[in-house]
Every structure is written in structure tokens, then in C-alpha cells.
Amino acid sequence: MSGDALAALATPAGASAAPGLLSAEALALTAVLVDHIIPATDTPGALAVGAHRTIDHLLLVCGTEAQRKEFVAGLAKVDALALAADGKRFRALPPKRRIALLHALDGGTAPFGADDQRFFRTLKSYTLFAYYTSEAGSTLELAYLPVPGGFKGDVPVRKNTRTWAI
After folding, report:
1. Closest CA relative to residue 130, chosen from 25, 20, 31, 10
2. 8 Å CB contact between 45 and 38
3. How far is it, in rounded angstroms, from Cα 148 to Cα 162?
């Protein structure tokens, strides 16, 4: 289910929004991060399917207290280092600067370290799960071939054939 659907299901009737783990600021930062991890192309990106809300919900419902604290601390560190280096919060940085910081975060290079790299890899894992279990990720991006479908030894391959899904 998409993050928006999970949030709606968790919301009591008449309430405005489901309480989550992340603050509004942390959720907004997570939204920017997931949008960079899986951006929109000819298919919707992670932001469009509500991956940030799914991550928030999964951490709240399935995460341990330690995992929740590590995730929130990782988000805070990304924002703090962006603020220290550029005088702006991560969300306010231009896209090229955000990407440069994300490359440093992914590689665990200065100003980030190994713990930050682990946080980012965890975030990427959550993002992939949230995206590919959404309707758009599972139907528009991935190709479903029913099993058993029989063996076809000679499959025509064209320019737009998703060969990895055959």
C-alpha cells in the first residue's frame, strides 16, 4: 500500500492526519531524500507514491526503539551538516548541492562518516521497499509475468523490452 493509503487507514474517522514517528520537518526531509533516491521519470517516483509516509509508518509500527532513534538522528545529522556547510537546511539547498551531499553520504566521505553511510543505506532500503510495494512501482515500473506461464525460448526483444523482467 502507498504511504498515503497507510496514513489514511491509520487515521481515526474525523481526524486530520495519522500520528507518525517523524515530525513534520523530518517527514519533509525524508520526502526530499526519497525523491532523490527514486526520482520521477516516465513512471512516478518515490515521492509520488508516498514512500516517505510509508517509511514513517513502518518505522512507527515495525521498527525497534533503537532503529527509530537511529533514523531520526540520521535525518537530523543530514540537516545539521547541510546547515553547517552551506548555511541552509538540506531541503533549501539547490538540487546540485543536495546531490553532491548525497554522494558524500552514500560514500561515507567528509563531512559524513560510516554511521551516516549506514543510515543512508537503510533509508535507500526502506525507499525501495516502499516504492516497489506501491501500485505504481509494482505495475508501472516492474513487469509482471504470471507463473506458471510456460517456457518461451524465443522471446522477441525490442528497444523498449524490459529484458530483466523476462
Report:
1. 31
2. yes
3. 19
Question: Rounded CA gap, 58 and 107, in Å?
Answer: 26
Q: Quick check: pTM over 0.85?
A: no
What is the rounded distance in angstroms from the CA atom of residue 117 to the CA atom of residue 132? 22
Helix (H, G, I), strand (E, B) or coil at 30: helix
pLDDT tens by residue, 55-75: 999 999 999 999 999 999 999
Which one has a higher pLDDT value, 10 or 81?
Answer: 81
127 in Cβ contact with 55 (< 8 Å):
yes
Answer whether 21's CB lies under 8 Å from 68's CB. Answer: yes
What is the distance between the alpha carbons of residues 143 and 146, in angstroms, rounded to a whole number?
A: 10
Average pLDDT over residues 114-118: 96
Measured between its terminal Cα atoms, the distance across the chain in Å is 25
Q: Within 13 Å and on the Cβ side, how many CA atoms surround 96?
A: 0
What three-state secondary structure class fits 22? coil
Q: Measured between alpha carbons, how far is 94 from 155 in angstroms, rounded to an integer? A: 45
CA distances from 124 to 4, 20, 140, 160, 162 (A): 19, 20, 20, 27, 23
Residue 145 has pLDDT above 70, yes or no: no
